[in-house]
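Appendix B, Record 12. Input sequence as logged:
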Amino acid sequence: MASKQSSRERFPELYVPVSSHTDPHTRTRTVPMRVLCLGMPRADAYTFNRTGTAAMQKALESLGYKDCYHMFGVVANPPDIDMWHEAANAKYHGEGKEFEKADWDRLLGNCQAVCDLPAIAFSQELIQAYPDAKVILTIRDEDSWYDSMMKTVVPLAEPSTLSTLAPLDHVLLKKWFPMHRCVFAGVFENKRFERIGKRKFVEHYDMVRRLVPKERLLEYRVGDGWEKLCKFLEVPVPDYPFPVTNDTAAFGERGRVMVALAIRRLAMRLLPFMGAIVAVVFGIWIYSR
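Logged structural output:
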């Protein structure tokens, strides 16, 4: 029996050392942007159906599309968060200059494909910036998408104990929560998701269909498997199964690991102060004897 994978093996993006982080403002495009996967993200909490953005990321990378940018990319390189936040503030809140192709090339310069949030929040801009890229519009059932969002993404936009403590983690969470809320508020017009979510879902799909020429657009259900996808991308069909993921289960587990690592980082920051406090208390105790 195969041994259970460690959290480091399951979620390597959470363990990238700070010394390896790079400032996206200093990057340039090193590979062409070839695929924009712009369907709304969905995860299935109860089955291992092939429905999530993680499955599409794995599929595209296995077909040779270098570094398919997913929310995992934000976690792996937290300095990216600042630039996504800049883009969201400019587009949705009128703060700063809206991104042009040169800005997207810096942020996504090492990627040949994108999927998932936050990239989906800038679908129109990416379609315009990369007119030669093929566009995959992953089709979701509106009601099941809504339910999965309510279980995963929506709670992270609400006040919580974790978001209150996030500023204590200077590496990741301090930046991630404000960026996530900024993007979420922009996409859903600063309104309750319960009121506007399904309407924005429909508007998003209509917008992509309107902007992308039919010859560059594939409407695709992940359960369709390899053949339809590979025919559109003009690549050979693999001889191994299409990736299977359980995005919602992994979403929860990844969150728990993120919190544990944040607590560890905080403890390491506080350790010198705790040592000093213990020394002072011990000194007072000795002096008062």
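Confidence is low (pLDDT under 50) at residues 44-51.
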